[in-house]
Amino acid sequence: MIHRQNREQTTTPTSAPPAPPATRCRAFGRIVACAVFAVGLVAGVFGPLAAVAHAQLLTYAESGEPEDPGLGLLQEEPHDIIYFTEASGGGWAKVRLLPIREIPSDRKGTLRFSILGFETDEFVAKWGDIDRIDFWEKRLERETAERIAADDFTGAYPFLSILIRDYPRRKGLDELRANFLWRNAIQRANNRERAESLAMLEELHRFAPDFKQSQVLKAISLTTGAVMQSLVDEGQLDTAQQLLARLKQDYGNFNLDAIGKWDGEFLKMAQEKRQEAIEAARQKDYRVARKLARESLYLKPDISGGKELIQKIDQVYPLVNVGVLQSARVYDPVRMDNWAARRAGRLLYRTLFEIQGAAPEGGEYEFLFGSTQTTPDRQVLELNLELEKLQTPLSEIQVDYLADQLAMRADPESETYFSPWAAAVIGIGIDGPRRVECVLRRPHVLPTCLLQLKVDASWFGGEEDGPTGDYRIGSVEDAESRFVLTDQARQANSDSGKPREIVEIRCDSGSEAVSKLLQGEIDVLDQLFPADALRLKSRRDVKVVEYPLPTIHMLVPCSDHEFLADKNFRRALLYGIDREDILKGELLENLESPGCKVLSGPFPAGMDLNDPLGYAYDPSILPRRFEPSLAQLLVELSKTLKTTAAEKKKEPAPKLRPIRLAFPADNLSRVACEAIRSQWQLIGLEVELVQLPVGRSFPEPDTADIVYVSAAIWEPIIDARRLLGPRGLAKSEDQLIGLGLRRLEEARNWREVRDRLLDLHAISHHELPVLPLWQMVDSYAYRRNLTGLGSRIVSLYQNAGNWRLDFD
C-alpha cells in the first residue's frame, strides 16, 4: 500500500489512513487519491480529477511505462522511476532522487519518496509493492551506451558529460568513456576527419592507456601518417613539424611507425634545405642562404651543423627581418602622423636634432653634428661642430651651410619654414669654423626642439633626398622592403657584424606577426597590439619592451564637408563614439594596459598623474561620454541651423552626405574604424570606410572627409602647431586656436608653457579641430638572439647600427 504524508505536519503518523474505496485496489490509484486530497478535491468529482491527472501526466501513470523523451531527458529534473507490481495495482512514478542508489537485497519495510510535482507531500510504499527502480545514473548509462552502439555520438555526448560531471567514480564509467572515444575516432577516420580522429585517439590514450592499447597505438600511427601527409601536401610544414615534435615527445617509447617515417622525411627535407643553403652561400646569394638555413633548422632543430651554418652565414652577411603592421612608402624621421615613415625614415636619414626621450622639462635632444649650449639668460643657442667624432658623410658638414639651413627654416618662402622657429630667432651668426650662434627674440625653454630637420645628402654636396643614415633602399615590394647597408657604412664597419640588410616584412594582422616572431621567421616586431604584448611577456625566448612615448589617436577632418565644418556636428560625432568600449574591448581585448586611456584633448596625458610627459594635458577636463541620444540631437540641430542659414540666403539647404572615414592600411586602425562606423550608423549617419594605400597615413584631396590618425605628439610645445596650425594636420583657421598657439610660442618659462598649453587643451576640447580618441602605449618585441637594441628607444631603428645577431 502507498500512503501520503504532508511535509508541513509537525508529527509523522506511524500509520496512514487507508485509501478511498474507489482506489484501494491499485497502487497508482492510491497516489491519485492522495493527490486529489492534497488539492482539496473529492474522489467522486471526475472532472477535476481528470484535470489533475492530466497535469501530472509526466510524473506518474496508472499503467505502462513513461514515454521515452530522447534528448529531452536532459531538460528534466534528475529523478528515479519507481515501477509497481501488477499485484499492487501497477503503474509508475517519477520521484526525486532517492537516498539509496541500489535496491536492497532484504526488501522489507517501506520506502519513502516524493513524486515530482508534489513537493509538499511525502509518499510511503511497501517494498513488496515495488517491482523495480530505474535509477537516474543507470538510465544515463543506458542512454549513453545505446547511442554509442548506434554510432550516435552527438546524442551520446551530453549524457556522458553529465555522468562524468555528477558521477565521476561510478563503476564502469571509464570503460563507457573509453568506448565512446574509440568508436567516435573510428567514425571520424572513416569520414576523413583525420585531425579530429587523432585528437580523439590521443585523448583516449591519455585517459585510458591500457584500453585496447595495441589497437589504439596502431590507429594513432596510421592517423598521424595521414595527417602529416595532408599537411605536407598543403605546404603547412611548420604545423607538421610542430605536430611531429609533440608526438615524438608523447609517444617516443612506443616506436610508432609514423613517427619514425616522418622523422626521416623531415630529416631528409632539412638536409636538402641545408645543402641548398650551402650552395646559395657559395654563390654569395646570402639572402637565400640565410632563409634556407633557417628553414632547415626549423624542420629539424637537432640537425647536425644547423646552428653553426646559420651563424656562419650571419657572420658573413648579417641580416635582420623586421615584422611590421604598416609598410613605409615615404621616409621621414620627423613625420608626426605616419608611424611607418617615421620608423623607416630613421634608417635612411638623420635628424639635425633627434629626440632621445622624455625628461622632467621637455624632451631630451641630441645634436647630430656635435654639442650645444644655451646661455644662462636662454637667449643664445650655441651649436658646436665636433667633426672628428663623425663618420662620412656627416663629417663633411660645412659651418656656413649649417647656418644657411637654420636661416632658411625662418624664411617664409622656404620649404623648411617653421613659424615657431621664425618667431623665436632674430639672428644667426658664425663664430669661427665650427660654431654657429642663434640669437633668440626672447628666452625659450627648449629651442632645440624647434630644429628637428631631416638631414639628407644634399647637405654634403650629394643628391637631394639621398640617404645620410647607415642604410639605403634596396628594393620595395608589396609585402617586403629591403634596406641595404651603404658602401660607406660597410667600409667603416667591415668587421663589426652590423646587419648588412634590414628587411621589413608586412604582416596582415597582429596575430600573424606574433606567429612569425615565435617561429623565427622574423627577428623583431616593431608594433604590438597591447593584448599581444601582455601575452608575449611570459615568453623566455622573446623580450617585450614599451616605447617610452605614447601615440595619440584621433580623427582629423580633411575635406570641405559642410557638416564637418560645424562644431555642433563634430561634437555629435564624438558623443556618438563609445571610446571606452572600443579601446578596452576591441583594442585591449579587456586586458589591463597601464597608460592606455581615453582622452579629452589632442595632447598626451602621460602614464600617470606625475608623468612629466603630460605637461600639456589638463586632467580636470573629462572626456565626453558616449551619449547617442545627445549625438542624434546635435545632428538634427546642425541640420536645422544649416537649413535656416540657407533659407536666409535663399539657397538650397545642404544635404547630409555620407561621411568617408579613411584609415591607414593596418589592422589596428581597421578594427577601430569599423567599430566607429557601426556606432555612427546607430545614430543615423551613413559612413563609408576608405582604406588608404599602403604606406599612406593621410588621404589625397577629395577622397575622404575624416581620417583616423595615430600621431606622435612627443613635444607639445612645437607639435601643437604641427597638429592644429593652418599648415598642420588639422589646418585649423579657428581664431581661438590661432591665439592659443601664438600665446604658447611667446611663453618665456616652463610655467607659462604649461599654463598656455592647458588653455589650448581647453580650447581644443571646446572647438574640436580634431576629435581626440585615446592614448596608446606601444611596444616592440624581439628574439633574444638579437642584441644591441638599447633601452627606452623612441624609434625602433634608433640604435640599428648597434644591432648584432648572437647564437651563443
Automatic annotation (TrEMBL):
Region (Disordered): 1-21
GO MF entries: peptide transmembrane transporter activity
Residue ranges occupied by any Solute-binding protein family domain in the UniProt entry: 468-692
Keyword Transmembrane part of the UniProt annotation: yes
Pfam family, one: SBP_bac_5
Nucleus recorded as keyword: no
Residues annotated as transmembrane: 31-53
Gene3D superfamilies tied to this protein: Dipeptide-binding Protein, Domain 3 (3.10.105.10), Periplasmic binding protein-like II (3.40.190.10)
BP GO annotations: peptide transport
Name the UniProt record assigns to this protein: Peptide ABC transporter substrate-binding protein
Keywords: Membrane, Transmembrane, Transmembrane helix
